[in-house]
Amino acid sequence: MKDLAALENWLRCIEARLAQEKDDLNALDAAIGDADHGSNLFRGFHKVWEKLEATPPADLPALFKLVGMTLIGTVGGASGPLYGTFFLEAGKTLPAGSQTLDDAGLAAALAAGLAGLQRLGKAEKGDKTMVDALLPAIDTLQSNADLQKAAEAARQGLAATIPLIARKGRASYLGERSRGHADPGAASASLILECLAGDDTS
Ligand code: ADP
Ligand code: MG
Ligand code: MG
């Protein structure tokens, strides 16, 4: 079960970890992209944090909409619209006025978010993208409602990107040379799932 405060803590955790780890994410992106993934996401989630401080959203749909719109507006790159769509589509599953999400509702919301992200980006499992961490995590959440296991599945999905050849995004321009490096978007997705599991009280 997650309430508004727990989900705000999730977003604060993401912002705080990105502040710490953005250089590491940039370094992953330097190997197979343009070295900006950590900076891009930190800019977006820092803006989310500022908006949460200034005007706390009244209900869960408003929270997810705030996150999605802010990421689309401030992150840029490939990941901004993708993560933005993820949060927007997740939020659309939630009834107006809702203040809490049970385990099944959370799993369904994240699954809808991932479906929207995949409609936009057209990445499938194995294309060496954020989908490789998000998909196993959300599948795990849907089958057994355990956030720790979901975060572990995301970490495994991240590790599994290392030997892959990138088929989407900038890294795909490298072809064979994208092998041997973890995907930066899979790394940020794993961070996002770890934060969701971090304050789990269920
Ligand atoms: P850019 O590549 O525009 O600089 P970022 O560095 O912020 O954007 O994000 C790169 C990450 O975005 C990649 O590591 C990958 O995980 C993800 N990505 C790129 N294209 C796609 C796509 N079509 N579908 C899903 N994820 C993608
Ligand atoms: Mg980049
Ligand atoms: Mg870029």
TrEMBL record:
GO MF, one annotated term: glycerone kinase activity
Gene3D superfamilies: 1.25.40.340
Residue ranges occupied by any DhaL domain in the UniProt entry: 5-198
Acetylation in keyword set: no
Enzyme class: transferase
EC number of the protein: 2.7.1.121
SMART domains assigned: Dak2 (SM01120)
Record keywords: Kinase, Pyruvate, Transferase
A biological-process GO annotation: glycerol catabolic process
GO CC aspect terms: cytosol
Pfam families membership: Dak2
Protein name: Phosphoenolpyruvate-dihydroxyacetone phosphotransferase, ADP-binding subunit DhaL
Organism expressing this protein natively: Acidithiobacillus caldus (strain ATCC 51756 / DSM 8584 / KU)
Lineage, highest ranks first: Bacteria, Pseudomonadati, Pseudomonadota, Acidithiobacillia, Acidithiobacillales
